[in-house]
Amino acid sequence: MANRRVFKLLKTDGYDLKIASWKGYSIRKLTLFVMKTSIKVLRLKAARDGKGDDKVEDVFNAQEIECLEELNEQMEGSTEKQQNPYPKQN
User: How far apart are alpha carbons 50 and 61 in whole angstroms?
Assistant: First the structure.
């Protein structure tokens, strides 16, 4: 079941790798990067749904967390529904 979710992320839901027109080393490198990212997405979704106990520090390094916090500030909307309901990590 987990394999199916990873491949669904790789092909249709997230990254649409099937349309990539890259060749050789480049497509291998891209595929590895996307697989690593897909695993992070699955871990975060499981934690959100209460099926995992990962914390943000388990999935991202300090530099990535800092980047995500900055992106969150830029992307949040002005209404309550458009804002991140989770407390900022300290």
Answer: 22
Task: Return the HEC string of the chain.
Answer: CHHHHHHHHHHHHCCCHHHCCCCHHHHHHHHHHHHHHHHHHHHHHHHHCCCCCCCHHHHCCHHHHHHHHHHHHHHCCCCHHHCCCCCCCC
Rounded to an integer, what distance in angstroms lies between the CA atom of residue 57 and that of residue 90? 11
DSSP character for 80? Answer: G
The mean pLDDT value for 9-29 works out to: 67
pLDDT in tens, 29-81: 888 888 888 888 888 888 878 887 888 888 888 998 899 889 888 888 888 88
Assigned token pair, 39: 């695993």
